[in-house]
Amino acid sequence: xxxxxxxxxxxxxxxxxxxxxxxxxxxxxxxxxxxxxxxxxxxxxxxxxxxxxxxxxxxxxxxxxxxxxxxxxxxxxxxxxxxxxxxxxxxxxxxxxxxxxxxxxxxxxxxxxxxxxxxxxxxxxxxxxxxxxxxxxxxxxxxxxxxxxxxxxxxxxxxxxxxxxxxxxxxxxxxxxxxxxxxxxxxxxxxxxxxxxxxxxxxxxxxxxxxxxxxxxxxxxxxxxxxxxxxxxxxxxxxxxxxxxxxxxxxxxxxxxxxxxxxxxxxxxxxxxxxxxxxxxxxxxxxxxxxxxxxxxxxxxxxxxxxxxxxx
Length: 312
Prior knowledge:
This protein has helices at residues 2-20, 27-30, 45-56, 66-75, 81-89, 141-156, 170-181, 186-189, 222-230, 245-248, 262-271, 275-281; strands at 101-102, 117-118, 128-129, 138-139, 163-165, 206-209, 236-240, 253-259. By secondary structure, it is an alpha+beta fold.
């Protein structure tokens, strides 16, 4: 019912937009349009209704994004409705950092923190020290306990796992980001360091394991192989995987892991989904996903530059 009501409200808005703005659109214009003012789909209300219905009927459709689905579909008319909804759910119709939304519940285990979603500057989670045997730093209690369990299991297999960076405050992230700006261009820094408020480390749910540098080639170590195989058993995911740069906005970080709980972690790792992709496929009702990611976004090149220390 909520989707239907929202759909009916959008029809007159889009119809007005069609009459007022019959000109072709450019990709760069989409993100600047006010909500409800996306440009021409059709001058006929019933046609608009049909167009919007294609999106509204999908299980992972978000009622508040119907206007964005419509605009994205007009830019890419050959894409199926499933692809349009999925890609807009990933915020691919928005530039990174353009219009970030503040997390409504920063303490929620499932909170999404990325270049489109920001944490309050004063948010500090409940923290628990990992302990000297597990490296440096602290995590939220549930994540800390899971990390210690994971490190203990790895030890039994002859693999050593330890934290080199865990919780990081807003101010510390700001200092790190600004330090990198003194060395590289903002465009380059944004590929490997999060702007303050946009770092998962501030959630207390993210940890850099064994390394934080590309020059360490952590991806070639037995520890990385063990993590890829077993991290989900303890509720962790490889957060910035290879080939996901267009979605996450960050280059491959084999050392960065995020705690999301066992069930979600297993879904992500088994299907090869980034966290954004996993959430983008979730039905609005909260039920199990009814879609498969057979319509992944096109590759978007991300500038990569060697760096010594990474502070995402």
